[in-house]
Design brief:
The structure is a single chain. The protein is built from 8 helices and 15 strands. By secondary structure, the chain is of the alpha+beta class. A hairpin with a 2-residue loop joins strand 4 and strand 5. Helix 3 crosses helix 6, helix 6 packs across helix 7 and helix 6 packs across helix 8. The chain starts with a strand and ends in a 7-residue tail after the last helix. Bound molecules: zinc ion (3 copies). One zinc ion binds next to helix 3 and helix 6.
Length: 356
Amino acid sequence: MRLFACDHCGQVLHFDNRQCVRCGHRLGFVTEQLAMHAVEIDSDNQWRIVGAPQSTVRFCANAALDICNWLVATDDPHEFCVACRHNRLVPNTGTDEGLSRWRRIGQAQRHLFYSLLRLRIPIPNREQDPQGGLVFDFLEDEIGSDGSIMPAMTGHEEGLIAIRAAEADDLTREQARTSMNEPYRTLLGHFRHETGHFVWNKLVRDRNAFDAFRVVFGDERLDYGSALQFYYDNGPAQGWQLNFISAYASAHPWEDFAECFAHYLHIVDTLEMARAFGIAIDVRGHEGMAAEVDFDPYRATNAAQLVEAWIPLSVAINSIQHSMGQPDSYPFVLSPAVVTKLEYMHGLVQQGPYQP
Ligand SMILES: [Zn+2]
Ligand SMILES: [Zn+2]
Ligand SMILES: [Zn+2]
């Protein structure tokens, strides 16, 4: 993610801003430019981008409930923006809890879409690809007659991504994180991981690109159900840290791929923000601990370039977090085997040739 500037007054804007804090202009996100703009009302539902009088736009239909602030071209027949038009089941907007959950979920979802659009990853919806297009269900938990909670399941199947809406609540998500013994659990992380499964379908399976995948991740024909069951019964194998980015990645090659895709986005997107702030790391007396993001991370030469900047930066961010009494922001270690997987991922999403 990067920073933006108000078209009216030049104030620095953040991706989640709805209004310029200096001049009060309403802000909307133009997906064609992947940029935030100040807008002024034209007529009825039509808005104009400040400084571009010819450009008429309208807000995504989900702006009515302050869930989304992405813009749609006036000649676009769709009432929703390019992110929200992938939604099928959404939280109950009749309750404050449902609205607040959906606002958090939508924010994380649009952050994911920013990265997908930046990387030009194909994201057909179900109108364009009825069998395997990308579609989201945000599911409520079921409450049994005795008051017991049946948690909705987060997961992916043939382009359908289900997100447990209750994970928008910090308490629920933190309980899930500690009970699963995970070092990191966020809504954005869920979106990035589950989308990794969709990307595997589209860029590996549907392109019959199994050979290169299996060289790096192993054979995904290993029975998925029993592999997962084995993982939940026995935990990860000793020494998993040498080969996997997370314990869960060791459960099955599909999960390994989804985890690596999520981490590729974590790294690229955080480096882009570090670049926007001009952050450079230079630890006196430690030559290996220097980094400057003097390149566009979304168009990096290779994953090695990303990793070279990411390791010093993530160590610095973790240390800064500790000074605030917070846990690691990035509680992971990039082993050489994981860097090889990220190199594969880079080649795949950038559509370049992959050379092991
Ligand atoms: Zn402004
Ligand atoms: Zn929208
Ligand atoms: Zn998964």
